[in-house]
Write a structure and sequence with these properties.
The chain is of the alpha/beta class. Among the domains are: 85-146, Dna Ligase, domain 1, CATH 3.30.1490; 183-321, ATPase, nucleotide binding domain (Nucleotidyltransferase, domain 5), CATH 3.30.420.40. It is 37% helix and 28% strand. It has 11 helices and 13 strands. The strands form 3 sheets. A 5-stranded mixed sheet has the order 3-2-1-4-8. The chain has a 5-stranded mixed sheet with strand order 11-10-9-12-13, sandwiched between helices. A 3-stranded antiparallel sheet has the order 5-7-6. The protein starts with 12 loop residues before the first strand and ends in a 5-residue tail after the last helix.
Length: 352
Amino acid sequence: MIRWLGKKNASPIGIDLGDRSVKLVQFSGDGSRLVESARWDLPPAPAEQPPGSLGQRWTEAIKRALHGRRFQGREAVVCLSNRRLFLQNIRLPKVEDDVLGRLVQQEAASRIPFPIAEAEIRYLAAAEVRQGDAVMREVILMACHRPLLEEMLHAVEGAKLRPVAVDVEPLAMMRASVRQFRRDEDHMQRVMFVHVGLTKTMVVISQGNDVLFIKYIDVGGGQMDRAVARSLGLTLSDAVSLRRHNGDRRSDQQDPELTRGIVEAVREVIDHLGQELSMCIRYHSVTFRGKPIARLLLGGGEASSQLADTLTERLNLKCELSDPFRSLAEGRAPSRPGQWDIAAGLAAKLLP
């Protein structure tokens, strides 16, 4: 029998393995429509997690997210999140690419917090920068501890899926965001991508597909949950539930008094986030001279129109909500699309 070869009907399944949930996204083979998306919340973690327990929880959550859905095939793309990724901006002499690779390995050996023999190391050569009278190369060093990578891959394989690629969280987010704006003039602009997650906020500054800057900030939804619990006299689990249910409603369906209470409770956390983002913008303007940042694209589980408005005012920078499904011709997009940016970027990794 002759097997006819052609384009695949669907992309691999992008799997965002989070601390509270797993999110799955799949596009059509040409990336024009959404095949399926699913989210499954993880059960609360035990106070002391035995080795391998997180992987088991991920496996079970992936199985449940797949059950009864329209996902096609068994190929999957996963990524390393901030908890499993060592990331640092370094400056190295301007040299040829093969020499640069050796210099990165040497720098990594003295910087990463685990044995170099157990590390997977990658890097992004950003832009040339001036340091005094010298021209240097800004390099983004990325490394992971191989046992953590293997735990993640085993979790996916345990759900009967086949990992075909591993990405890093910042690049997945940027890919999902860049796909939203396809005009040439959009790709010429410098954009700040901000993903506010549970424990950290991820910041990426790029021009088109060229990454200039990546940083994780120690501000996230977990801090907002704790602030609401303290302010309103709630248990942490009740505060989490309150914020989530209020955020899931459309603005015209939210309780105004409750919303004001939550906003006031998290004000200090948002102030801190604004200060940190402002420092990132200043670092960019000093280090990467030329074009200013044109806009900020806000994603992650904490993305909201209210937060976007607040950041627009405090940073004096146009802030828009990310929607990784914005350019799709078909397929019903899930609610609160900003929280799907990582999974969507993973699903798009191998698309043409």
